[in-house]
Amino acid sequence: GIQVEQSPPDLILQEGANSTLRCNFSDSVNNLQWFHQNPWGQLINLFYIPSGTKQNGRLSATTVATERYSLLYISSSQTTDSGVYFCAVLIQGGSEKLVFGKGTKLTVNP
Amino acid sequence: KAGVTQTPRYLIKTRGQQVTLSCSPISGHRSVSWYQQTPGQGLQFLFEYFSETQRNKGNFPGRFSGRQFSNSRSEMNVSTLELGDSALYLCASSLALAGELFFGEGSRLTVL
């Protein structure tokens, strides 16, 4: 089946720093989503981005479908950005299920 | 517009019991899918329903089952609970197949 790899697995930053999270996937996908899991476990939608670039405040994402990767940029990080970030892909021509990466655990220190 | 609602939020069961979890999708969404999250296995797909029909099922034993009602609300059931079933169970809804998924807050199950 499709493989989804996220890097780095762990990231520690000082408040105000910028960061880039990466998601590689092994097959063609119908869609790609980035989520932030809050401390209570809920997955919060960040981006629905099968291709192209989107921005939302301090966050932006780029997916290059032909090269099978996506990047999530966090600028001017804040302590509230801490948590686990997941990339998930919906495989093309197959079952309608999201396949998740293992996540990047981000810790932003004050 | 209300989000995806899952009940109960927390529950404790003992081995051998069964449990039923409920999910109400966003109004107008007809696709509902379920995921299990554990520290060891991460987030794994359980099953997906659209218009009361199960379209896909993940690689879980037959003890895991689900259904969807005509109002798109969904339930999942786990019978003969095992310690390894302790997990966060997440439900997601989407407007259409292969569309953007929105998740509920989850139901955290502990099996003793």
In words, what does this structure look like?
The complex is a heterodimer of chains A (110) and B (112). In chain A, strands 2, 4, 5, 9, 10 and 11 form a six-stranded mixed beta sheet that branches. In chain A, strands 1-3-8-7-6 form a five-stranded antiparallel beta sheet, with no helix packed on it. Chain A is 0% helix and 60% strand. Chain A contains no helices and eleven strands. Chain B has 112 residues and is mainly β. In chain B, 0% of the residues lie in helices and 54% in strands. In chain B, strands 2, 4, 5, 6, 9, 10 and 11 form a seven-stranded mixed beta sheet that branches. In chain B, strands 1-3-8-7 form a four-stranded antiparallel beta sheet, with no helix packed on it. The radius of gyration of chain B is 13 Å and the shape is globular. At the A-B interface, strand 4, strand 5, strand 9 and strand 10 of A face strand 4, strand 5, strand 9 and strand 10 of B.
Q: Count the E strands of chain B.
A: 11
Oligomeric description of these chains: heterodimer
Q: What gap, in angstroms, lies between the N and C termini of chain B?
A: 37 Å
> Helical amount among residues of chain B, as a percent range?
under 10%
Rg of Cα set of chain B: 13 Å
Give the termini distance of chain A in whole angstroms: 40 Å
H/E element order of chain A = EEEEEEEEEEE
